[in-house]
Amino acid sequence: MSFLHIGSELQRFFRGKLPPIGLAVIILLPLIFGGLFVWSYWDPVGGLSRLPVALVNSDRGAEKDGQPFNAGEQVAEKVHSSDRVHFIQTDPEDARRGVADGTYYFALELPEDFSEAAVSAGTDYPHPATINAVFNNANGFLGQMLGNQVATLVVDSVDATLGEKVTDTLLVGFNTIGGGMDKAGQGAQQLNDGTVTAREGSEKLKDGAQKLHDDGAVPLNDGAKKLADGAQALDKGIAQASKGADQLSQGMASLREGTQALGNGAQQVSGGVDSIVGLSDGVAQQQEQLIGQLLTISTSLRASGLPGAADLAQQTDGVAEQLRTSGLGPDSSIVSQLNQLRAGAREISRQLQDPNAEYLGGVERAVDGAERLATGLHTLKDGSQQLVVGTHTLSDGTSKLVGATDQLTVGATQLRDGLVKLDEGSGELALKITDGAKKVPRYGDDVRGDYASTIATPVKEGIPADSMTLFGVGLAPFFISLGLFMGGTVSFMLLRPLQRRALDSRAGHLRVVVATYLPAMLIGWAQVTAMFLVLRYAIGLDPQHEIGLYVTMLGISSCFMAITHSINSFFGATIGRVLCLILMAIQLVSSGGLYPPETQPKFQQVVHYIDPMTYSVNMLRQMIVGPSDWALDHRYLHGWMVIGMILMVSLGVSIFAAWRHRLIRVKDLHPELKV
């Protein structure tokens, strides 16, 4: 037998009518996974536009800047304008009933406070707007999963729309903040200028406070103390003067009483003098008569011519002259003195009794003055006591003033030091505010919308190297691997793992294995060809490397055929088919074709690294969606090495099975009876 001779294993499928049909079914059966499944899940997301979803707008609206605002209507219009999902706006009762009976896969509700929450960023109670989603597990898990994606898309869309408006308001606020910062910078600069002036004023204040303390408060305190001492001495002097004034007033009262008594006596004296003068006037008249008689006698004597008459007449004239001059005559001194005495007595009496007289008027005025002096000194004494109290208070106040001016000097010094720091701080503040104002972004009306859109949605989907593949394209490596392994499994439902004729021949063990494996491999390649053509031209799969994909599928099919061949050869067809199905199930959940192994239980994570389907999925991904310039990563070459090694190990197991089948055992000599 030629080493590559396929024997008669395939020839029996070309005789009659059913065998060719069976062979065709085996070749096309992997298309259930590799074709039908890929086609069925080609683009389920793209079909969301046909997915009926209930939309309930319960929003009652709100006010924004004094104007009515209804975010619910805007969101409803936006989602209705989108062709990605078939939204049907309805009332809450219909939505609840439709989700329950499957009319709608799920429902979205915009609650009553949706608008209030949307504009709450400018209130004292900011809170996010919510969209209520209602699902029904009875409508299907995948429908619910797609519904979650739709809800996420709606929320993202609403976030972008409302966020842009809120952000626009914030940007307007930034413009306002910028203007306020400019004004604050100007104010800070004015504050700095003011602190410079205040610092200069504080220097003068300090000097003035020191001068006030040294030249004003201290001398004033000393003077106040001296004034207090002087006021005390003055009070004592006034007290003594007041006592003297009281004594003077009492003496003047006694003087007035004595004057009154003296006036009465003077009046009596004046009356007595007047009486004496009256008597003297009578005597003077008699004397004048006598003198006249004497002069008559003298004249008579001279006229008589009598001797001695002239002498006698001379003597008589002398006596008359003497009476005239020394007696009570008009020329006598006694009369003159009596007249003076009468005038003096009368004057004394008038001075002592007439209130208009100088003496008595003076005494009265002196008495009144003494009384007023005493009264004034008493008043002055009271004032001096108040002056003493006031001067002591003044002295205490000036002492406190000295302490206060000393504190004022210290405070002025501290104020100056503080103003120096304030000047430095205000200057730095003005500089920082000015620099900060320059850094505050300003958004003009022509660009604010773009900035608001960018800030509200800072991240957008963008894949520069790869484009997002369709769902079916992403699952194609998994379904192809599954289809090829299933193809190997069903192939040995018709093919015999080991031909009895080959076992009975003298051919080597390897040749016995190849006699069955080569026909199976050719069937596998036929399955690959059919699957590749359907994927490429019927479904529309556009792999990055067409030839590479086809060759890779051939290699994977060869490996999977070797695995199923070895299992069926070693365990027999009945047990082998069951084990192949079990192995296919284990590979299915451990390959990482659907979910990353890190998200699965520990058992699947361990099996993942020894799962042949893990490497087939990686290789197919490289060919379908990998880089177009053949800059493939290590997983592709690694996959070839693993499936090559598995192929060789599987053939080794098949060779061992062929060797074992050639041994004659006891049970072959004495087979069990079949009932």
From TrEMBL:
Q: Where is the ABC-2 type transporter transmembrane domain?
A: 23-152, 478-623
Provide a Gene Ontology MF annotation, just one: ABC-type transporter activity
Q: Which domain of life is it from?
A: Bacteria
Q: Does the keyword Transmembrane helix apply?
A: yes
Locate the transmembrane regions by residue number.
21-42, 470-495, 516-535, 547-563, 570-589, 637-659
Record's keyword annotation contains Transmembrane helix: yes
- Broad class of where this protein is predominantly found: membrane
Q: Which InterPro entries match?
A: ABC2_TM (IPR013525), Phage_infect_YhgE_C (IPR017501), Phage_infect_YhgE_N (IPR017500), T7SS_ABC-Transporter (IPR051328), Vacuolating_cytotoxin (IPR003842), xxxLxxG_rpt (IPR023908)
An example of a Gene Ontology cellular component annotation for this protein is: membrane
Q: Where in the cell is it found?
A: Membrane
Record membrane topology? Multi-pass membrane protein
Keywords (alphabetical) are: Membrane, Transmembrane, Transmembrane helix
- PANTHER family xrefs: PHAGE INFECTION PROTEIN, TRANSPORT PERMEASE YVFS-RELATED
Output this protein's name.
ABC transporter permease
Q: What is the lineage of its organism?
A: Bacteria, Bacillati, Actinomycetota, Actinomycetes, Mycobacteriales
